[in-house]
Write a structure and sequence with these properties.
The protein is of the alpha/beta class. The protein has 7 helices and 10 strands. The chain has a single domain, classed as P-loop containing nucleotide triphosphate hydrolases (Rossmann fold, 3-Layer(aba) Sandwich). The strands form 2 sheets. A 6-stranded mixed beta sheet has the order 6-7-8-3-9-10, with helices on both faces. The structure holds adenosine-5'-triphosphate (ATP) and magnesium ion. Magnesium ion binds next to helix 1.
Length: about 220
Amino acid sequence: MILEVSNLRKEVSSGNNQLVILDNVTFNLNEGQSLAITGPSGSGKSTLLGLLAGLDEASSGQIRLDGEALHELDEEQRAVLRKDKVGFVFQSFELLPSLTALENVMLPSELKAEDNPEQRAKYFLNRVGLTQREQHYPNQLSGGEQQRVAIARAFACSAKILFADEPTGNLDPKNGEMVSNLLFEVNSETDNALVIVTHDHDLADRCDKKIELKLGKIVE
Ligand SMILES: Nc1ncnc2c1ncn2[C@@H]1O[C@H](COP(=O)(O)OP(=O)(O)OP(=O)(O)O)[C@@H](O)[C@H]1O
Ligand SMILES: [Mg+2]
């Protein structure tokens, strides 16, 4: 099991109120499987993804990622786990503005001291159709191009599980399909698991499993 999630709850305080963002979220995912998380805006999808990837801490409940209990790890240990096992495509891309597209894609594999970061980065930039854009900085790229760089970056370093927050959200149908195909190709070429937040029903239907959130709860 790559992910075991039980009774997950996330609350935040706003003024005097406690706001419940996620409640009683329970599911499992096997190694190599793909999972789609759907639901309306504000239903807690990005929050859930952040918890699953160890970027944020739950208020209660448990997450095991590749057997490791995230709630038992401190911030530093979670950072190590993320570096070793997790790839993440943020809804807002989070590319580093002072690095070129190529440098952005190379960075995680360099940090992990993997072999040939440049070769891997070029390979995945090519797969997202951006070979011509290697030397451009994020502010010289369109939103959709930045999204594709972020996807290349997530793939360029090997991860056991890849989280992608609306990976086709900024793409036209043609590029959206290219990115979807890439996600599933890499998912089947390797044994990495895939967790995708998406509003795109075609993309969700291609996943092995689906969960739908409404007001922070899983609906059947
Ligand atoms: N740190 C926070 N403080 C207060 N409220 C928060 C915080 N983080 C998230 N929320 C609220 O939790 C709810 C869920 O947010 P989240 O970003 O997970 O939604 P989402 O399903 O990803 O929506 P979208 O489809 O628009 O991206 C929203 O109402 C949001 O305002
Ligand atoms: Mg979101």
